[in-house]
Design a protein that fits this description.
97 residues, Arc Repressor Mutant, subunit A, 4 helices, mainly alpha
């Protein structure tokens, strides 16, 4: 299975997954995500990466004073992250930490 997401877009999805941003009550601030994104130095513009993820239905925007995002389609996001080597759990099994 191949996807059309860039490394930067996958990185944003991974940030949201690792921070537990999986519903409307637990979103991640857009400014913080942008700071991490710029620090990593991805070639694609941050706004374009967010727009692609929004248009493809991976994430949803929460309208606040500073926009927040959360993963709206976890069934679509987890297999893609797993395929690209990110540390995700498949199914209901959680790793022991």
């Amino acid at each position: 299975m191949s996807c059309n997401l860039s490394d930067g877009e996958l990185y944003i999805l991974n940030i949201l997954y690792q921070r537990g941003c999986l519903n409307i009550a637990a979103g991640k601030n857009s400014k913080q995500i942008e700071k991490y994104y710029i620090k990593r130095g991805f070639s694609k513009d941050y706004d374009d990466a967010i727009r692609t993820l929004l248009n493809d239905g991976y994430i949803t925007k929460i309208k606040k004073s500073d926009d927040k995002f959360y993963i709206s389609d976890i069934k679509k996001a987890v297999p893609i992250l797993f395929e690209h080597g990110f540390d995700v759990t498949k199914g209901r099994v959680r790793p022991i930490k």
